[in-house]
Amino acid sequence: MKKTNSELKIEKQTAAPYLFILVPFILMAVFYLYPIFYMVYLSFFKWNMMKPKKFIGLHNYIQIFHDPDVWQIGRNTCYYMIFTVAFSLILSLLLALYLKENTRTNRFIQSCIFSPYIIPLVSVAFIWTWIMDSDFGLLNYLLSCIGLKPVKWLNDPDMALTSLVIVSVWKNIGYNTIIISSALAGIPKYLYEAAELDEANPVTVFFKITIKMISPTMFFLLLVNIISAFKAFEIVQIMTLGGPQNSTNTIVYAIYQYGFKFYKIGFASALGVILLIVISILTYLYFKLLKSNIHYQ
Amino acid sequence: MSGIELKSINKNFGDKTVLKDISLNIKEKSFTVLLGPSGCGKSTLLRIISGLEHQDSGSVFINGKCVDNAKPGKRKIAMVFQNYALYPTMSVRENIEFGLKNKKIPKEKRNTLIEEIMTTVGLQEHQHKKPQYLSGGERQRVALARAMVKEPDVFLMDEPLSNLDAKLRNQMRRELIELHKKTKATFIYVTHDQLEAMSMGTDVALLNAGTVQQFDTPLNIYQDPANIFTAKFLGNPSMNIFKVADNFPLKELIQEGEFIGFRPEKVKIIEIEKSEKEKSLYLNGEIIIREMLGSESIYDIETEMGIIRVKLQEENIFKDKVKLKIKYKNIVVFDKEKNHINTLDAYINSEGKNHEKN
Ligand SMILES: Nc1ncnc2c1ncn2[C@@H]1O[C@H](COP(=O)(O)OP(=O)(O)O)[C@@H](O)[C@H]1O
Ligand SMILES: [Mg+2]
Questions:
Q1: What is the reported pLDDT for A8?
Q2: Domain range enclosing A212
Q3: CATH code for the domain in which residue A143 is found
Q4: How many domains does chain A have?
Q5: What is the pTM of this model?
Q6: pLDDT at residue A2, rounded to an integer
Q7: Which of B13, B17, B19, B46 has the most ligand 1 atoms within 8 A of CB, as the residue to mutate?
Q8: Residues enclosing ligand 1, CB less than 6 A?
Q9: Which of A117, A264, B142, B261 gives the lowest tally of CB atoms within 10 Å of its CB?
């Protein structure tokens, strides 16, 4: 059967969009999909980049679960992630609530808070390495001024990871506060008026209206903050190199160390696969929860 | 003294005066409509009564008590907002329950109250839905239910029907009238729609630019407008108004600079002039626009006075050249400040007497 002109045109039209996405799709395949599959593939091998690869099945994974270092890395990562995320979000929320009134001073404070976000993380890490220097750092100087004992910050195995948490929180608060502020500004005023007529007390208003209305934003920030905490690398590389005594070694830094310092490519790949799975689960949970019970306008 | 009393309310926003010396005595159990063009300060006045906004000077009394220092929740009022202001995070039921919970009403009592209201407004099947999944009419009902469940002395409503389609609006108008009868509460209803005001209000306060132009029953305002603004605001199409000038048909009878007005439905189209006992104004005209609406028709007719709008019931006019007749008793005279003086026949009599006296 012969196709009419218009039918042909429609066919051409339906092909066009696929052509347009072909280029980005190829780029994605080369730079995202291929490395992911290659990583999964490598995780089943023993390979130090010199000798030929040797297939060892799940041995890398088994080794991971029996390696006390890996368990410590896991604990470090969770500690860093939980405290960074919790403090960034809670402090940002309090700040955003405080800055809710759009006065001149508040706008000034807001831009001050936002500035850490635009400084590159590398610079932030360097600056804080100086600030937290145990002997000549600003922080210890300030502590001594108010009569407190100096803290060894990055040199103390019990304190180093907490120090990194402090720096990350300082860095994250700007972005989080801006996002929460705009969510707060987006709550219609009439809801508060309706609540006033309904005789709601300030606590009820805060939890039943303010928090409920910004819950999608908070949830979004939660996921973004968790994922970025999992991916922490520069800050460890510049400030502590994973030490002292492995106390600040987190997963992405460990993957880098195992891969490019100890040349255990297969082992590092297996760790990468585990990180991939954790982040995939989190993302899946995010979308699932989002659908079920978080308010979106 | 019951009802609501407003005493010399003034309100400015920055240097813009929004309400100027408003004094109103709103009767208990009345359905009082605050009517006026957009931006005249109706919502502001309603919000001052509710306590959401505070007046710069003047006082509000509800049931004889001064409420100037009472919080909105303590004024025994309930408000229906123009956009309903439902809590988007709560289900229909939670929306209605919220106020009751805050008042610490026990659970069993809450449940009976809510069941009752749900049946009244017909929302049972929707009670667990969030407002975003409801139609405009259903949201409107939730907003009403949320107000009703508080059993307030006063219902405040700010253009509650303006977001509904025409058919639903007609239906809701009737339901609101019924609700008013049933609840025996005082209703204060803000609208810019004269039809809503006429059809629902027992009293109408007509506002313009922050002042009360007239406060009366809708019929009295319609029949006896206090000034040209009220005359033009009520009635559709609005009253024909002409300034008396040179070579004007009635200029021997009325002073220059004064105004006359007559309603479009009071103009008759006649075949031949007959001399009658009742005096009338006769004009020749030519129809330039016809609007046939079925049960009625509206014409723009060019005459020596200017263009006159005429509304006729049933009959349709197909010829272009027509003769018009307007009875003197249906013509209203306004003074130079646009305030109502009298109907033309009464005006002539009193002017005559004045002349005699002089
Ligand atoms: N919060 C406010 N700040 C400044 N101006 C306002 C505010 N609320 C209302 N106005 C102004 O007051 C006037 C009356 O407003 P409103 O009472 O809402 O009028 P209406 O309800 O009759 O349309 C308008 O000109 C409006 O711009
Ligand atoms: Mg308004």
A1: 56
A2: 68-293
A3: 1.10.3720.10
A4: 1
A5: 0.82
A6: 53
A7: B13
A8: B 13, 18, 36, 38-44
A9: A117
